[in-house]
Write a structure and sequence with these properties.
It is a single chain. By secondary structure, the chain is an all-alpha fold. 68% of the residues lie in helices and 0% in strands. The chain has one domain (9-95). The chain has helices at residues 9-55, 61-71, 79-95.
Length: 111
């Protein structure tokens, strides 16, 4: 078995150029079709995922109850800490009334 091949570099270059030319022609014929096929497939797949996320929420009653219980946890309002902070803010405001200058509203037009 003799696997030696005698390919001349000139014929190989011509064949490569010929193959590349064929590939370029084929690409020029199908590139728009391929683009729109991929575009519509992507839009369809995105629509399928969106529809499943909107209408396909298949929660069991136990999962729904767990979600509601998690949402119903109450926030503990620490009134003493809140009052301390209010007193501190009022004390600071009364201590130095000159340094407090309101910031201009950036959404109002200049006059």
């Amino acid at each position: 078995m003799n696997f030696k091949t005698n390919i001349s570099s000139k014929s190989f270059k011509l064949e490569t150029r010929h193959v590349l030319n064929l590939v370029a022609r084929a690409w020029s014929k199908i590139h728009m079709t391929l683009f729109f096929t991929l575009l519509f497939c992507s839009i369809g797949f995105g629509g399928y995922i969106w529809r499943n996320s909107v209408s396909g929420a298949n929660w069991t009653d136990q999962e729904k109850q767990e979600y509601l219980n998690m949402q119903n946890t109450k926030t503990v309002f620490r009134e003493n800490d809140f009052r301390k902070v209010l007193e501190d803010v009022q004390r600071r405001k009364a201590a130095d009334p000159i340094s407090y200058q309101p910031i201009n509203d950036i959404f109002e037009p200049y006059q």
